[in-house]
């Protein structure tokens, strides 16, 4: 048995989309407006303040063990920077940071978990420099937290790792532009979403309409679709009905009254013949 195949005319499909290009453009503009408004007025803006630190260790001792690292090895030693980042995000370090910033701004009173979620750090391109990033809805608070970390971190690391030397490369500044949400990115996503939904709607309507045209609606359609088969019977169209007697009014009497009228008509005809 051969499987039914549906052919799609790509040119006709493209023309169908082109005829509804006004709808695609309207939905594109609407999607851009909705996405822009959502990012502008409904999403809390976040700001990022960044400080940079330099790690310079020629000799390091941990406890009773000591070892040396050359400058070439140090630049590739990502684990060393990772160690300092772990120390920076420790509870004792962040509790000290919270005390410092609260003394400057009483509104900056955070728990350890809140501060830990705000702060990220990573090495810059595998070098001995790592970047501290603080994300906060208030740009001034973000700058205060980042610079406080940069100031206390060298002493904090020196207490744990003997022979270490961490210096401030760059202090954080108050960010003037939000880091998220991105207005350009959200607007672009709205444009794509609006255009895609409109085009998808046009395509679905085209396919459904095209499929409906291929449906068998008459004996001729059946013969055209299956030329090797013979039509044995046809089902009458039940959509057209007699409001008085129903669908089969032409085949039987639908009520006792009609039957009595028929019998009376037959008797009257016989009496005339007599």
**CATH-defined topology of the largest domain:** Alpha-Beta Plaits
Helix content: 40-55%
Instruction: Please mark out the parts with pLDDT under 50 across 5 or more consecutive residues, or reply none.
Output: 250-262
Quantity of strands, as a count = 6
- Class of the largest domain in CATH? Alpha Beta
Task: Give the N-to-C terminal Cα separation.
Answer: 68 Å
**Name of the CATH homologous superfamily of the largest domain:** EIF_2_alpha
Count of DSSP helices? 10
Write a short abstract of this structure.
The protein is an alpha+beta fold and 274 residues long. Helices cover 54% and strands 13% of the residues. The protein has helices at residues 10-19, 21-42, 71-76, 78-88, 91-104, 112-118, 139-160, 183-213, 219-225, 256-273, and strands at 47-55, 59-62, 65-68, 119-123, 129-136, 166-170.
